[in-house]
Each structure stands twice: as C-alpha cells, then as structure tokens.
Amino acid sequence: MSEQRARPATQPGPESAPQKKIERPDEEEEVFGKAYDPRIVRRTSAYVRPYRRHMAWAVLLMICIAASNLVQPFLIKMAIDEAITRADVRLLTLTAVAFVLSALVSWLATYGQSYIMSWVGQSVLFSMRRQLFEHLQKLSFNFYDRMEAGRIMSRMTGDVNALNEFLTSGIVAIASDLFVLIGIVVIMFALNWQLAALTLTVVPVIAVATHLYRKRSRQMYREVRTQNAIVTGYLAENISGVRVVQAFAREDVNLRQFDVVNRENLRRLLRAAAFSAGFGPVITFVSTVATVVVIWYGGQKVLQGVLTIGSLYAFLAYVGRFFEPINDLSARYNSMQAAMAGGERVFELLDTPAAVQDKPGAYPLPPIQGHVIFDDVVFEYVPDRPVLRGVSLEAQPGDVMALVGHTGAGKSSIINILLRFYDIKDGSITIDGHDIREVTTESLRRQVGLVLQEPFLFSGSLRDNIRYGKLDASEEQVVAAAKAVNLHDFIETLPFGYDTEVQERGTTLSQGQRQLLSFARALIADPRILILDEATSSVDTATEKLIQSALEVLMRGRTSFVIAHRLSTIKAAKEIVVLHQGEIIERGTHNELLTQEGYYYSLYSMQFRYQELGLEHNVFGGDDEGAARPEQPPTIPPVQLAATPSPGA
Length: 649
What we know:
Elements: H1 38-48, H2 52-84, H3 89-138, H4 141-146, H5 149-191, H6 193-199, H7 203-240, H8 242-247, H9 251-277, H10 279-303, H11 309-350, E1 372-382, E2 385-395, E3 400-404, H12 411-418, E4 426-431, E5 434-435, H13 441-445, E6 448-451, E7 460-461, H14 462-466, H15 475-484, H16 488-492, E8 501-502, H17 511-525, E9 529-532, H18 541-555, E10 559-563, E11 575-580, E12 583-588, H19 590-596, H20 599-612, E13 617-618, E14 622-623
Parallel strand pairs: 3-10, 3-11, 6-9, 9-10
Antiparallel strand pairs: 1-2, 1-4, 4-5, 7-8, 11-12, 13-14
Helix pairs in contact: 1-11, 2-3, 2-5, 2-11, 3-5, 5-6, 5-11, 7-9, 7-10, 10-11, 15-17, 17-18, 19-20
C-alpha cells in the first residue's frame, strides 16, 4: 500500500513513528490501590468547591435523615414503657404523631439530599468532561501516537462516571453510614452497656469475613473485567472488519471463536456471582446470632426487672439497624477503589502536557503571502532516530512544490512539521520571515489548508462540512465554493440539497465526492498555503478529471505542497523534491529531473511502462483502486490453515 493509503497524511510513517506501548487488555479496567487517596480527593474537591453551599445543605439533610431514623425505635420504646404501661392515651397519640413526623422528615430529607447530590454530581461531571475535551484538543500528535482512541474514551466515560458516582452517592452516603453507626452504638450503650458490649462481640467476625470477601472478590472481578475486555475487543474487531469477514465467508468460524471467549466470560461471571452471593447471607447469619444473643440475654434482664420491655424492643431494633451501615460500607469499598483509580487516570490525562505549545510571548501570525523556507531541518519522532536530515527547501508565494518518494521517505513528516503538529529538533521553518515556533499555532493553522487523501467528514449536513473551517460563511460563499470544485451539480441532484445529512465519515458518498467536498472546505477557508495529499490516487479517470479541474482552482494563487503518488499529476509543479530516507536527493522541474536520468527518472519510467501496459501503477507502494487489472489473477500456492484458530489469533 502507498504511504498515505495506510494512514492519514498527518500521521507519521511506520518506519519512523514511535511504537505504541503494548498493554494488557484489562489494564485500564483494573481496580487497584487504596480506597481513599487524599491527592485524588483534593483534586476532585476543586470541582466541588463552587457548590459548597449545596454540599452544606446535603450534609444538613443527611443529619436530618440519620436523626429521624435513630429516633424511631426510641419513640416505640417510649410508647411501650410510658404510654401503654401507664394507659396514657395522650402520650401514646403524641408518640404516634412524632413517629409519623420523623418518617415524613426522613422522606423529604432523602428526596432533597438525592436531588442536591445528583445536581452537584452532574454539574461536576459536565465541568470535568468539558475540561478533558478542551485538553484533548490541545494535546499534540505524539500523544495520540501512543494512546488508543478506545482508552481515551474509557477515561472520558467510565473513569469520569466512577468519580461522579463517588460524588453523588459515595461521600454523603459514607458519612451518613458512619453517623448512624456511631449514633446506634451510643444509644445502645445508653440503654444497657452490658448488652451493648455483648452485641459488639460479633463485630470482629464481620470484619474478618469482610476482609476475606473483599480480597477474593476483587481478584475474581478483576478476572471478569479481563475476560470482558477480550470479548469487547473481539466484538469490536469483527464489527470493524465485517466486510472482510463476509467477503471470506468467515461467519461460522468467527462465531465459534466468539463462543469460546464468550463462554469463558460467562464461566468467570457465574463463579464471581456465586462467591458474591454468599457474602450477604453471612452477614445476615451473624446479625441473626446477635439478635438471638440480645433476646436471650436481654430477656433475662427483663425477667430480673433490670430492663424494660420497651428498652429490649428498642435494643433489638437498633441491633437490626446496626448491620445495615456496616454492610453498606463494605459494599462501597470497591466503588471507592474504582473512583480513586478512575480519578488517578483522569487527572493523569489532564496533567499530560502538550508537546507542542506556544512559547511565552508568541504572537499571532499576520496575514501571509506564502513564502516558505525550510533551513537545514532535522526532525525525529523518536529521540536519536531522525526521519528528516538537513532538509532545506524554499517555496515562493504561489509556487507548487511536489514531494516525491517511497513510503517512509519523509513526505508526511514535512507536512506534520509545517503545520507544527510536531516540533523540529534542529534548523528552522519560516513563513514570510516568521519562525513558526515564535507564532501561535492557531494563527498558523488558520492560514494553512490541509486536504487529506482520505478526507474526514463530520456528522451534519453537506453545508456544515463545507463551511467547517469558516463558520460565518454565507450561503452564497458555500454555493460558490461547491461550484468552483465541480460539486454543486451533484449536490443539486440530492433530495435535500445542501441540507443532506452526511453519514458517519461520509460512507454514502463516493471517494471522489468526498474528495471534492474536502476541496470546497479548503477553498472556502481561503488559506494562503495549501497542503495536498495525492487527491487522485483512489478514483476513476472521469472523476480524476473533475478533481484535477478542481485542484487548478484550489491551488490558484496559493503556495501548495503536494504529496504525489501519480507522477503524471505533478508535471506542472514549479519544483519537484525527491526524498529518500529523510534526505533530499534530487530536485528540479519534471523535465530537468528526467534529463538527469536519476532516481526520479527511474520512478517515472517504471510508472510510464505500467501505463503502457494498461495499468495505473503506483510506484510508491501499490496499485491504485479502480485501475485496470490483468485478465488472469496470479496463482497463489495453497496454504493449509487451522480449522478453528485460537481466540487470540
């Protein structure tokens, strides 16, 4: 394949780009570390600080909820010991009314607290995601060379959601559980310290059981997340490659492979679920034992006249409620761990600096004419592995400069550093005398237009995509740009014209139509410098003529850098620069280079011979799509394949 067919023009070549770190599929999904990390809590609190008043109301309502729940068993004790024993109907009525009021207060306070915390949590979620999105747009290309899109999405969604869950339900709920637990212990000791001490003897049993469960459960669910990541990855791969799957009739084989990984996922899930299902009954059994102890020992105290029946009932009620916050706190441990781990990854992303940043004092690039000079430029993606070595070239305003060379020669790298997607190691690049490292990147890129070989279209209408780089463009300007690149007549044939919605990446449009649309987008932005990936390497001859006509309009009066695959398209270039292994080995006009009979001459002769044979061969990495093919396909020796490859194959 050609250099640019394999990746966008703004990405480094395979020979020069840094290799992405190979990580285990479950690495992002694992929950590890402490359940409370003060650094993460401190960073998160900065997002909560604007809502201090709301949080104070939530804490106040939490206290109301806990107090109303704690007072209810005491009211029943009073009704039994005071009202019923003394036949005091008035006191019995008052305690009944107080019980109802406490339940009403608990309901209203719970509603208010839930609403406030949800509101705060969603507001924090909005601010955090907005900051993440803003930061991601500023990060340099070397970050995206290392980080997969799926991993970034995981941090934008899963990790931020884990933090949000911690904010909306974790903080206040944990505080409420602790408040209730302490309140119950105090009341139990106030009622009968001996009975309270006896009841608390089961706490060490619960602590040991919880520790053992948490340790084993975390390991089992980590294995579940590992297998789930494998299932998700296999599913995503098959969805992305569905055309190849169906073209090779691999549906049955792939289904068998999916069954293997999916069944293993089911087995681990069921094992983890079976283990987790046993923890609740353990706590229930321990609480039952505690209840029996209270009844046995407290009943004796009642018979001895030391303890009232009302006190015994209240004690039983408090014992029943004593295990609720313990169970809740145990259940929240894993979510706290997930929140801390998620927060660490979110803030790690926010703390990632952009490799390419405006210098202090950087100034906006004034309107330019397009005089570009590369002066002895050295550039490398990986330290000490230069991909451009001492490159020097000059383009006058309005010149067309063609970049020619095999895959990995450095053509894309020249584009990347001219747009300052990466910074150079040595030398300088100036535009109209302004060093591009001294001006703001925004002002630089607003005056440089980029048209990729594989144009990227965004969701929205055709009109939105055309004026993507100039949002204030009028309808007349949109139509004029479309007409200039021979796209208007096609748009007029569509039922909704310029309001026609573009599907994902423009899949409903042909390659040529997408290319013409990208030309219109570049034309309406009116850049002074134009960078073109080979625009005709993936289209038929008729469409190529339309695109060539559009290119003439697009490049008119602009300094243009053209990455060329079909040498026939660059004959009129002011200068052709031939690159080999990061160095300029030849330069000149088309005729001058042919006269030299050097590297360019060999490439052109090879391509010309293929054209005479009826093949539109691309000498820089493969045949062009849609080109003529030999009548008989080449004979390929049969290869013995395994009937059912392993899931990891």
